[in-house]
Backbone:
């Protein structure tokens, strides 16, 4: 079974939102991943999992066009990846705004609408309409005029999603957007992203170290570890055998009440010398 | 000095009606500088550059002192010093922490150089003092046109980069991901900031530049977060401080900078009070969804 096979439940007809062929990325002698073939269909929700330093964030940077691939090709919506592509929306980790930041909730969303344009905004009606629609989309209308520095982490993340959706992107990249949110907000923000994928057909690439809050929305998992990777549905990837082989040591995957726990994960991923590790055939497992 | 001497030196409004027209150019210069300071101040606050402004001002002072010593144009010297310092900071420090330590190193060096040049200078003592505490009252019409032209360049530059600069200042990571040239914008802004600092030094002097470039914007941020209102209030506060300060200073015998700094300080205190009341009354109350959709 090839890694580029069509994921379950996604229409075959549409061209992939993201297409990687023979992609590799290395920093000096350290290979983060190599020979990655992956198509992400419109509306598909891909979770990118792995320990710290396994190359999750670098994967996002490649998609954003901020870091070039070492080898292979990458197309976003049929075009080569480039910096500032309007086909990509980016939701970063929750970051605290100072309380005196001169932006209200709606202004933060507005940066996604026209923040990249030169000059000052002269005619504002279309802008205001678009911002209102985006605020309503993420359920943030009730705090539209509150300064961003006075909002909770969960509220800020909703605004970031609204901001990222402003150019109607084909791909929504999320970099640990649930970090430092409480359980309630984690669930709400994941549901928002999941709904965006299913309802509006946006492909989602969701980098996280914790799959449980998003488990019900995930179509496929890209699991990175020690210079190797494996791709498949959560059911295929999140098993004791697959992850043990990926990490090169025994880890135990426990399923309980619809949640997944990985036990015995090595503290430090064996990065740097993937060629010494057997099991390069892991790609595309199982 | 007793109280009546003090009040006579500080507030003296005899012959005020005759004095005022004579200072038309100074008042105009004050208004222009208020406009520039208020505009650029909002970005200084957003980018957390208050300390950088102080450091740039000290090097601007060194440049002006050097120009005074060698008989060159003082304003040009101060411009050269501050633009150089601003670009240096723009190139060197990317992270705030790193930036602050670089400024901490540069600032005393600049101030020391300035003191060296001033102590070598044999001319009028008033010239020396003016660099540190301001000398706008002596502005003539040629200087005024030069000032207006430079200010116009700064304002035009700011307007041109306004939106991407706002994005890059509020959220550099996302702005970079969206393809905004964050680093280039940062350098462009430092260049404009360097010019603004050199201009402001003409009014309030190197030591008190923060009163024009920080305090008005900081005061505005206490009472509102709506971007347009912040800019309007910041400019209004800065102009009230400079023009008001000059008008109060006309009859007295002391430099104008204490008036300008006191006015801008009082405005800040007032705004803090208003902001505290606004917060207590529930600035952050969420409107019920029905009301928001209505």
Residues:
């Amino acid at each position: 079974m090839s890694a580029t096979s069509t994921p379950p439940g996604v229409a075959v007809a549409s061209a992939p939102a993201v297409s990687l062929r023979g992609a590799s990325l290395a920093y000096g002698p350290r290979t983060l991943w190599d020979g990655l073939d992956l198509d992400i269909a419109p509306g598909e929700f891909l979770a990118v999992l792995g320990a710290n330093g396994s190359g999750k964030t670098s994967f996002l940077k490649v998609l954003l066009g901020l870091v070039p691939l070492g080898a292979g090709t990458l197309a976003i919506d049929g075009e080569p990846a480039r910096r500032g592509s309007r086909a990509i929306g980016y939701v970063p980790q929750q970051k605290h705004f100072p309380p005196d930041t001169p932006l209200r909730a709606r202004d933060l969303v507005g940066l996604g609408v026209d923040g990249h344009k030169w000059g000052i905004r002269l005619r504002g009606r279309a802008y205001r309409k678009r911002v209102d629609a985006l605020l309503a989309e993420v359920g943030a209308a009730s705090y539209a005029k509150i300064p961003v520095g006075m909002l909770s982490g969960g509220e800020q993340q909703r605004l970031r999603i609204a901001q990222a959706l402003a150019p109607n992107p084909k791909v929504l990249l999320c970099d640990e957007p649930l970090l430092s949110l409480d359980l309630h907000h984690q669930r709400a923000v994941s549901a928002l992203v999941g709904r965006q994928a299913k309802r509006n057909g946006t492909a989602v690439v969701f980098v996280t170290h914790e799959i449980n809050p998003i488990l019900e929305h995930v179509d496929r998992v890209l699991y990175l570890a020690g210079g190797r990777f494996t791709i498949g549905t959560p059911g295929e990837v999140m098993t004791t055998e697959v992850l043990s082989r990926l990490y090169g040591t025994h880890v135990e995957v426990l399923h309980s009440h619809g949640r997944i726990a990985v036990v015995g994960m090595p503290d430090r991923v064996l990065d740097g010398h993937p060629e010494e590790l057997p099991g390069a055939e892991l790609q595309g497992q199982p | 000095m007793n109280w009546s001497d003090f009040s006579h030196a500080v507030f003296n409004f005899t012959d005020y009606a005759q004095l005022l027209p004579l200072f038309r150019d100074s008042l105009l210069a004050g208004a222009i500088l208020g406009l520039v300071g208020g505009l650029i101040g909002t970005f200084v606050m957003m980018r957390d550059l208050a300390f950088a402004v102080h450091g740039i001002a000290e090097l601007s002072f060194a440049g002006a002192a050097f120009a005074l010593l060698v008989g060159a144009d003082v304003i040009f010297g101060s411009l050269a010093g501050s633009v150089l310092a601003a670009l240096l900071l723009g190139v060197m420090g990317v992270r705030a922490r790193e930036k602050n330590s670089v400024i901490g190193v540069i600032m005393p060096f600049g101030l020391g150089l300035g003191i060296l040049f001033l102590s070598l200078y044999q001319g009028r003592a008033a010239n020396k003092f003016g660099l540190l505490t301001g000398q706008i009252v002596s502005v003539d019409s040629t200087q005024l046109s030069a000032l207006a032209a430079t200010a116009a360049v700064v304002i035009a530059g700011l307007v041109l980069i306004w939106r991407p600069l706002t994005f890059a200042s509020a959220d550099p990571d996302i702005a970079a991901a969206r393809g905004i040239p964050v680093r280039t914008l940062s350098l462009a802004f430092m260049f404009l900031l360097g010019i603004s600092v050199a201009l402001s030094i003409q009014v309030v002097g190197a030591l008190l530049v923060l009163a024009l470039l920080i305090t008005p914007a900081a005061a505005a941020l206490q009472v509102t977060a709506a971007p347009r209102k912040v800019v309007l209030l910041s400019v209004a506060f800065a102009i009230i401080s400079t023009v008001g300060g000059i008008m109060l200073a006309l009859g007295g015998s002391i430099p104008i900078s204490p008036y300008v700094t006191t006015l801008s300080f009082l405005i800040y205190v007032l705004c803090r009070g208003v902001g505290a009341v606004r917060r207590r009354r529930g600035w952050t109350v969420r409107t019920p969804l029905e009301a928001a959709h209505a």
